[in-house]
# Entry
Amino acid sequence: MKKIYLILLAVLGMTVTSCLMEEKELFDKTPAERMDSFLDEYHQLLASAENGWLLQYYPEEEQSYGGYAYVVKFTNSDATVWFQLDDDISTPVTSLYKMTPDDGPVLAFDMYNENLHFFATPDINNYEALHGDYEFRLVGKNDDASEVYIKGRRSGNLLKLVKFSGDPVAYINACNAVQSGMASPAYKLTVNGVEGSCSLSTNVFTFSYSVTTGEGETATTETFEGSSAMCYTPEGAVFYNPVTIDGVEYTNLVYNATDLTLATEDGKVVIFQVIPPLNQQLVTGNWFIKYSTLGPEGQFYFDYLKQGIDAIQEELQYAFLGSMLYPGNFGFQFISSGYGGSLNFNYALEGEDVITLQFAMAGAGNGVWYHNNAGFHYALRPFGYDKARTFKLTADDKKSPTWIKMAEVGNEKNNTMTLFAAQIAYPFKN
# Structure
């Protein structure tokens, strides 16, 4: 028995020694040296891409702001960045970057870059910014090194840099063309012909549809819904997370420029634009007033309004048709030296582009006080005060108007008003 025991010990000793030798060979570099080697490899890889890398970027932990296209071209020291939301896409922004060991290998754009830091820069409305990333953990790459996988240190979102070919400006303009083509006040979808509702707000696709089976008392209805952030591409859009609809998993949508739709490649799911009538857009939106785009009758009455405001030593900051300040109260809404109010209208819609307005003898906020004490009833008269007035509406773009022109039927020469979707401050100065 002693002989067997000694033999086993000898074998065991040889095994341990062998393992130690293998471990020594395997880890012939220190952890710091291995980290430096890893960073150097990826540094060279990123800088070697002649046309840079495409990055479909998603800020915020839940991807609630959707995704946006970047193209990043690296040299050994700096990164030149094209960005989908840049006002001037043709002029990229260049800044330094670094590869650093910081709780793992990190690609850090630590020098301020207007494009790369867009979602990470706080402002007065978002002191925590939009939870964007400018530091990314290097996770790995695919077999042919055409994709590099990164993870936002703040958001935790998994992203990838894809070796890019072509022109960055042309690519991003093509993305924006698809997004612009799909811009609409509302949307609907069909799933195998069954109609449902959906939204593309802030580059996040949400959907809901119902399927009824059976008839009469035995009929049952099942509702299906889901969502995913998405990023526009020249071909359509891609999802951050795959979306399952009617039992099929989808990763992207294809744009049809003729029909102005987005659809799955098998054609089973189609997203359509819903364009409300122009008069409906008028009463559901907020349309800002400029003194200079009022007709003769409108300017006549607004001159009296100005006298009333001057008499109480205030200044009209905003004036618009809508319900933004007081939801549920469509009318002439305003802010005068910080005081808000609404003077409400009754309205009737006819066809797609005709509306009749008349003061409803009611208001909200400080509206009635300004009506009685500051001459704000003059602002209502060109729209319809003691009598109803009917207007024909026109716009620059019925799908997504930036302005709507109201022309009183039978009084077109004297009473026209062009109102704007963009906020207009100090209407008497514009």
Observations:
- The chain has three domains: 32-174, 183-274, 279-429.
